[in-house]
């Protein structure tokens, strides 16, 4: 067995450098290595003043071997002092921080330690006084150490150059943010109040899944002269296969002014919706179009040739599997004719006085949603492209008219469901730990939350304005009311891509309470294991979160089932919602970031509806905010001088809102998770971290296994439970064990047990379970020898 020592200087650096690790899983400290001192050995100075004092000072026995910085943050300094012999005498150590003039800095307390019986290394910790004013910055040039038993002690002076800083409390921080106009907004003037129309339509930067966005169809062209009118001249409409027994394509819907095509294949019990794709005109042709439907199984290419009410559809289906040949077909389709009945005026004659039959009063009764949605997106003009439609509104931007156009009724759907959050109450989500069995390592965790479509009255008002703008340019429609889509039955929630797929939680283990109205919140809960809970926390706080979908059946014979995304996540702009700026208020009153995360402010958008002649145009103007980062609880003072005041005061402005992103913040996530977790009353979830040094490189150790036992492993603190072991396989790397559920104000008491495995298969175990009261442990050769007597004997041999 190789002999191992920690006497080398490198060994000391490794040993003391480990103190600088931050090992609490739920506590984030200030910025580490703030002055660049961590893991550095301080140089002792031959100071003239110190030498002069030392000539008359007490002569002491022992030596300071090294002084190494182990922690360096804005408000804290930790130093590991290695010494020899001092603990054998009645010596006292006094440590102070000095400025460049070698005067004591009163912002830090003097450290005084009785060295009698103390073990090397000794940790010294300096903290900046809590009463130091916000925004203070200062430097400690020197560290002075005095050691002895008499009043006149020898002085040891070390070069330090430690920087200190007190941050301004976020609640007292006001960040100035200037609005810089983009595109047409730069030409808006306070004096002229002239609207400048952007010359482009906004693009969506993400790939739209058209299978989830239903088709857009042009409104019927209605005339009053004939008694019956056939509408068949445009290519928009529903095309039915002439072969009713086809096993291929049964129906084709062309919509959105000939821009979209939706295909339905033969399936049982109802036809399969292939989704909606782009319809592209063929070059040098006035009646031929093509569209591509690409899936993981095959790529289908269609060529549509249209003559009046007849269509020929050529279909080539290329399978991704090389063993399956290309399938080709040519089928005929006929456009479904729509008939609109009109009142007939019949004049009558008589001998006394002419009379006429009066037309029947127009039926304005709503008949339910029709599958001819109109797109509110198509009329928008802007200088800024949007990544997702929800950046404008949480209402899906395809609106369904009623089957009876005279009713003036329209129906909307939510674009998605997400976790509910508001500034006053926080997240509507909790993680509650159950009591563990005495035989198990932990209890189950119940997660409960509320999902919401985030459709406020302001969102409805915005969509109404866009809809009224559309209708004003389409006189065949009238507007009376905008209603939520009625449904036939309680919607079904599936989390197959989240809970069911990732964590093997079956659908019958997920409890969902859905209201009869899809605008209302949805309560959802599920039970998971302690281990999976930790993984879920990571997924909830980063990335896409837990994903799923809602399937709802509209109360309509023509509108098909709708698939609405469901997403459960914490640090997400969809969860935190859209921040609307109140007119005449945000310019004069500071806006507050009430979210638990720092935000990066990207843009300010203003949606204006401008009337020009008989047309109305919805416009989005944009001002850049230069991605200024705003800490949680900090305030923003907007400089809106580049946005004319009339933009927000005129009635044509429908909404002004912020476009933002959430800044990554581990500390914020941990605080949020802590606030949502409930185990032992008032407890915080924490982990134990172990780190080894110089065990594997210089020895024959293959692995070190550590297990712990404690009542805090039980979420309710009822039983002393044993944890699953953690295996340490390399040096200078943190390995965690847990979780522990520690009530507020209590220390993390636990016992630990080592099992050491050598390269030749020999094992050594701790003599006894040993107690520990800190959430981190550094393991070196001395620690192993102290705990495992058989290993101690082997190394001596």
Secondary structure blueprint with pairings:
Elements: H1 9-17, E1 44-45, H2 48-56, E2 63-72, E3 76-84, E4 92-98, E5 111-114, E6 122-127, E7 137-148, E8 155-165, E9 174-178, E10 180-182, E11 228-231, E12 237-241, E13 249-255, E14 260-265, E15 272-278, E16 280-281, E17 288-294, E18 298-307, E19 310-319, E20 327-335, E21 338-341, E22 347-348, E23 355-356, E24 374-375, E25 381-382, E26 398-401, E27 409-412, E28 417-419, E29 421-422, E30 426-427, E31 429-433, E32 445-452, H3 457-472, E33 481-484, E34 492-494, H4 496-503, E35 510-513, E36 522-528, H5 530-541, E37 546-552, E38 562-568, H6 573-576, E39 579-580, E40 591-592, E41 599-612, E42 615-630, E43 635-639, H7 646-649, E44 653-662, H8 666-676, E45 677-678, E46 683-692, E47 701-710, E48 721-722, E49 726-728, E50 735-743, E51 750-758, E52 763-765, E53 770-772, E54 776-779, H9 781-787, H10 789-796
Parallel strand pairs: 9-43, 25-42, 27-33, 28-38, 31-45, 46-54
Antiparallel strand pairs: 1-8, 2-3, 3-6, 4-5, 4-7, 7-8, 10-42, 11-21, 12-13, 12-20, 13-14, 14-15, 16-17, 17-18, 18-19, 19-20, 22-23, 24-26, 26-27, 28-32, 29-30, 31-32, 32-36, 34-37, 35-36, 37-38, 39-44, 40-43, 41-42, 41-44, 46-50, 47-48, 47-49, 47-51, 51-52, 51-53
